[in-house]
Design goal:
heterodimer, A: alpha+beta, four-stranded mixed beta sheet, four-stranded antiparallel beta sheet, about 40% helix, globular, B: alpha+beta, 11 helices, 10 strands
């Protein structure tokens, strides 16, 4: 048992470290390092521009989308090399947040289902960050139950005409392309009438409206489709086989190992080490220590769970199911941590402006952003179902709408 | 990076699991639980024959000379099987203390006997309520003679020798405490079995009356050594706890698959699925913290104090969580003496206290994290 690199891994790490040291935008390092959940922008700079510039620089030197094949703009690197890169990229990796959906989900779906010409045309600029992609799955009527979506695609000659509404689309307002899941046959059970496409987000009839979130920020959008035309050549997979195509996408979403999840624990530890309470430093208070320890072992448990997965990658094995706990644990923990940090601040905890709030208001921002982390990318409840069913082997839920034609499924509860 | 046990170590784990499945079924645990035997002598003998008791004891002292990673995988299996033997007190506490601080003569005398299953050892630290601290030690050591009362002492009534923490100075400093090695069969000590939460492992009161004792080691050993012994034992005990947590989770999962209510397996109800998913989460977090503890223990890393505390806290929480919710999944049957659930519940709650309770280790963890951050 050890944490050592193999000779090959060490050589790769040295090369990556040297390139990052020579090329990373160091002027933003401190700010990026200190950013926490709900506080992800840069002061005095447009983070989108900084992120795109860094991505382009990486792509030009062969450091973008490491695990992708070279012909599509990647490096053809092994999974463990990708992890080593992420470790070395450190705080600069936070700049990749804008590309996560495109690189992690849209790209792999295109790779699996698009034609060769399309892959060579669309993937390299996606890898280099010149083009940003979004994923258009969720709808007002289909969140956890995404197969319940209602956006219609109807065939007219060689084109499909799209009408409907998507929601919770990250980054739609600055995206160039998107992958879109639609309903092509409402007369069959819900999973059997879906079809996947990719499209140009500048197509006529696409309208993007930002959602003002509960946190007051706008990271997500609603996207409306009114008679949007998509050529059949941009269909991904067979007609009515979109559910299986979407599983490829979602599988990739949950495979992102080594991508650090925000727990709020380092921030809380630092805060408690400095905060003076009536009778001394917070971190010397017995009650505070107990709470801190409770969260610290969860955070270290997550860290070493991820190390175990990385070790499996290093040996060329498929990581076990234990990595599926990351989002579930971190999501509610960061919320609890934020609430506790405010509790320690007493009445002043109510202040959230950077000038007046304790710790420049980072815990207030964390608190307001946290509910989203427990919902996005699979709610806590869906994650528990996944663990129960796929890891523990418990039966799937009874699905009363499984064999019912989609257009016969009730659309509201109380009449 | 290879943050995992080796194939040989995994094979040893499988071997231990198979051995314990055969020699230590729940029925064997119940023999001790019901008070018919103070511990499972046959099993103890078998563990010695398998080389498990001396797995981390060097060959020069009659052990297998393998190492602490090997001991960790065996500990996990001992916890999974609820082995009703004085393994933790003898191997994690007594043997570790001697390995760490014993004199050559003490090592020669006791370590081969431990490995052969001929000597049961323990640590006599506590004197009534409270967590490990120099202030808590009142038993006096004057002129090589001990006077005072220790309780609870794990496996104290069946132990052949004990490492005893005794007061050698008047204050609260670490150096006011000394460690002594006492042959419990040589007279001067009276043992009384105490009723405890988990009768499958005994607890005793030891009364020392002008009891002759030799210091542990050549130089005088103080509280600092005891802290190290507790850290090492914490990692090993954490593996037992993780083994127990995993088994409790499996029992709950299996029952949820088999038990039908309202016309379907209860494991198809989300309320039950989520209960079990949360048990899996805590067991997984604990296992990962334990692996870090194992790494630190086996390499004598400077991170050991922090890693040990994290493993201890995480594994204690996981075992308690899994054991109590295993009963919940079982419903009424889980609350019967007949079902095995309560044996895990008892063991989970007893092991949560033995080396110092959760609040003690939480306190230790924060101190150690602060030290590391300051460094």
């Amino acid at each position: 048992m050890n944490f050592d690199d193999t000779a090959q891994e060490a050589a790769f790490r040295t090369e990556a470290k040297a390139w990052i040291a020579a090329n990373a935008p160091k002027q933003y390092e401190e700010e990026l390092r200190k950013s926490s959940l709900g506080r992800s922008g840069l002061k005095g700079a447009n983070i989108l521009e900084v992120a795109k510039a860094w991505q382009k620089k990486k792509a030009d030197a062969g450091w973008a989308c490491l695990h992708w094949p070279k012909e599509y703009g990647g490096r053809g690197a092994s999974p463990i090399e990708r992890v080593i890169w992420q470790q070395e990229e450190g705080a600069f990796g936070k700049l990749s947040g804008l590309f996560i959906i495109g690189h992690g989900m849209c790209g792999p779906t295109m790779m699996a289902y698009a034609g060769e010409d399309q892959k060579r045309h669309y993937l390299p600029p996606l890898a280099s960050g010149e083009k940003v992609w979004c994923q258009l799955f969720s709808e007002p009527a289909g969140g956890s139950d995404v197969a319940g979506l209602r956006t219609r695609a109807e065939k007219h000659g060689e084109n499909w005409i799209i009408n409907g509404q998507k929601i919770w689309t990250s980054g739609a307002h600055y995206s160039d392309h998107g992958i879109l899941l639609t309903r092509t046959d409402p007369n069959v059970p819900k999973h059997k009438g879906l079809t996947m496409f990719f499209l140009d987000m500048k197509s006529p009839g696409v309208e993007v409206r930002p959602i003002k979130q509960a946190s007051g920020q706008s990271d997500f959008n609603e996207v409306y489709f009114t008679d949007v035309k998509i050529p059949d050549s941009q269909r991904l997979g067979e007609v009515n086989d979109g559910w299986n195509v979407s599983l490829t996408t979602l599988m990739n979403e949950r495979m992102s190992i080594g991508a650090g999840v925000s727990t709020g624990v380092p921030e809380l530890f630092e805060f408690c080490s400095q905060l003076m309470l009536e009778d001394g430093l917070a971190i010397e208070d017995r009650g505070v220590r107990s709470r801190l320890a409770h969260w610290a072992v969860k955070a270290s448990g997550l860290k070493y769970t991820s190390m175990r997965a990385i070790s499996a990658l290093s040996k060329g094995e498929r990581p076990g199911p234990e990595n599926s706990i990351g989002k579930l644990v971190a999501g509610s923990m960061v919320q609890d941590v934020a609430m506790y940090a405010l509790d320690l601040q007493g009445a002043a905890g109510v202040l959230s402006g950077p000038e007046d709030a304790e710790a420049t208001g980072k815990f207030q921002a964390m608190l307001l952003r946290a509910p989203g982390t427990r919902v996005e990318g699979g709610t806590d409840e869906i994650m528990r179902n996944i663990i129960a069913e796929r890891v523990l082997g418990l039966p799937g839920d009874i699905r009363v709408d499984k064999d019912v034609p989609f257009n016969k499924i009730p659309t509201r509860g109380r009449a | 990076m290879n943050f995992d046990f080796s194939d040989d170590q995994k094979q040893l784990r499988d071997q231990a699991r198979k051995f314990l499945a055969e020699k230590c079924p729940p029925k064997a645990v119940r023999t001790v639980l019901d008070g018919k035997e103070p511990y499972d002598r046959e099993l103890w003998k078998g563990l010695a024959e398998m080389g498990f008791l001396g797995v981390a004891i060097p060959e020069a002292y009659g052990g297998a000379g393998a190492g602490h990673l090997e001991l960790c995988v065996i500990s996990e299996e001992m916890g999974r099987a609820l082995a009703p033997v004085p393994f933790s007190s003898t191997v994690y506490l007594a043997a570790e203390a001697i390995l760490l601080a014993g004199s050559e003569a003490q090592k020669q005398k006791w370590l081969p006997a431990i490995a052969a299953g001929e000597a049961i050892g323990t640590l006599a630290l506590f004197e009534g309520k409270g967590n490990p601290s120099p202030q808590g030690v009142k038993l006096s050591a004057v002129g090589g003679s001990l006077n005072g009362v220790k309780k609870p002492v794990p496996d104290g009534a069946i132990a052949d020798f004990a490492i005893v923490a005794a007061r050698t100075g008047p204050g609260e400093r670490e150096t006011d405490i000394g460690l002594f090695l006492v042959d419990l069969k040589a007279g001067g000590v009276e043992a009384k079995t105490l009723t405890n939460l988990d009768p499958s492992r005994g607890q005793a009161e030891l009364t020392f009356k002008n009891c002759k004792a030799e210091p542990l080691g050549a130089a005088k050993q103080d509280w600092a050594i005891l802290t190290q012994v507790l850290d090492r034992a914490a990692v090993l005990m954490a593996f037992e706890q993780v083994g127990g947590a995993d088994r409790a989770l499996e029992m709950g999962r299996d029952y949820a698959l088999d038990r039908i209510a309202f016309g379907r397996p209860i494991g198809s109800f989300q309320a039950v699925k989520h209960l079990l998913a949360d048990m899996y989460v805590s067991a997984t977090l604990a296992r990962s913290n334990c692996y870090y503890g194992a790494w630190a223990l086996s390499t004598n890393a400077s991170e050991l104090p922090e890693a040990a505390a994290a493993a201890r806290i995480s594994a204690t929480q996981a075992f308690q969580h899994c054991a109590k919710n295993n009963i919940q999944v079982h419903g009424g049957m889980g609350f019967t003496w007949e079902f095995d659930c309560h044996m895990y519940y008892r063991r989970a709650n007893a092991t949560a206290l033995g080396l110092g309770s959760l609040s003690y280790w939480e306190d230790q963890l924060i101190d150690r994290m602060r030290k590391k951050n300051a460094a």
